[in-house]
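Hello,

I think I submitted the 6-O-phosphono-alpha-D-glucopyranose job twice by accident. Can you confirm which output corresponds to this input? Input:
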Amino acid sequence: MCGIVGYVGFREASEVILDGLKRLEYRGYDSAGIAVKVNGHLEVVKKAGKLQVLADSLKEHNLSGQFGVGHTRWATHGAPTDPNAHPHTTEKGDIVVIHNGIIENYLPLKEGLIARGHTFTSETDSEVLAHLIEEKYRGDLVEAVRLALAEAYGAYALVVAHQDHEEIVVARTVSPLVIGLGEGENFVASDVPALLPYTRRVIFLHDGDMAVVTREGVKVTDLAGNPVEREVVTVEWSLEAAEKGGHPHYMLKEIYEQPRVLENTLGGRLHEEEAGVELGLKLDPTHYDKVHIVACGTAYYAAWVGKYLLEALARVPVEIDVASEYRYRDPVVDDKTLAICISQSGETIDTLEAIREAKRKGAGTLGVINAKGSSITREVDDTLYIHAGPEIGVASTKAYIAMLAAMAMLAVWMGRARGSLDEKTAREFLGEMRKLPRLVEEALELRPQVAHIAEKYHQAQDYLFLGRHIQAPTAYEGALKLKEISYIHAEAYPAGEMKHGPIALIDERLPVVVLATQSPFYEKTVSNIQEVRARGGRVIAVATEGDTEVKKFAQDVIYVPQTHHLLAPVVSVVPLQLLAYETAVFLGRDVDQPRNLAKSVTVE
Ligand code: G6P
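Support: Only one job matched these inputs. Its output is below.
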């Protein structure tokens, strides 16, 4: 978590840094800070609160200089206060340190430093690095950082500057760091969007890498100082793709991008004539007799949908876990296990550790990932990119839809290879998949109706979401979206399980969203709707166009386009995303930066 930007070149460093941090605010927004070299000294300004608080405060400072570093924080150790904001420095003030991650042995290090006369001004784990580096410094900053990191362990993307050297010394283990290459200028950032206005040529640092970034160039080494070769990658994301494109919020922009995203995810991969998909994967799908899928948050619900798809089309047993549970439950894994992890960022630490656990136990590993070059992609045997483009809104939308499409393709890939999916069925299913971008486009037209429903229920204290079979995860994702951005308590349940508890909650104040699209289980879901109605609950049904039954029992019916029942989650989630969005806007919430959340969770 946390966003980092560093700059050395010929532009005003504070402008480049603030602009970059703005694009990284999705990584945390508890506090922000900057250090720029002005008249030979590193001047630090840092403020609790969002980046704008820092930007306002900078108007009162002259931070004119061409060399600097900045940070936007998601608090782990220490409350979001001014002193706990980064950059951290020491009494002397000649060194500044910015850190993303957790230094696990910071307490013993801190005690030792205090005993040796250091005075601490923050409660953070990060500050120990500033003192440790100061202690090791004998005129060579790179050497001092290397010596300090020999004593500190944990997760870090570390950025260090010294007033006497116009170089940014960086190091990473676990937390991401990318270097942007320019002409007469170079950049450091946690993620690519911060670099896009200036360069598309980047180096993704690997775990255990250090680098020295100057105006003239970049030198990458390992932590012992041995040179290492890292590929220069040209990223294809346009700056426009990473900005709002005229929408009031990134989340809305990303919801509207979904038809295009699906075209990208599916593009060139569906081959109806051969009744298969071309995913460019090296793994042999016939080798495995079971599948484990791990993920967190929204990606976990994509895993759940993936389970139904894989079991239906590939007839392979699938277990799914939230990654933070999987990594500690000592799962039964062997070399016949295909472990799949799903992640938008490719950086979520629990997901990374879960897939490492499966790999250690001999599984074949596959990442279903959005961010190119991210940590997970470097650890797994194979990656299926979902091609959703940069997702900035903290509440995930377009990445989710792309994950669902990717899981459907994986199910066809495995099903065809294992012989469980015949040519005719595969062709029909692929034909249905090809229609998805158009169907999602149609589903977006539901926005005015959904906005009306959002208004009607925006004062509800609680919401219940119900869905059955492959639409159970859709119910959970709908509830998660609503919770995340409107702060209304929302609970989701498999529809058939409702009578075992949540039915006690139902009264005339409780809006109940029921996924009642056409499927072999449709009648059962309609029975559940009647159970809700009989107890006075307010039913908002999501049903298939042409359904005349449901409206007899529901106050509101949202009609989504018809598709194969195994693909229904792709179209049905759209009105639920819009419901969360419109409710949050109604309540005046900060849609793109909901409280307490961060987009990329790189701490346990
Ligand atoms: C955080 C985000 C969620 C996201 C989850 C997993 O909780 O707020 O939106 O679904 O992390 O992130 P990943 O990048 O692994 O998909």
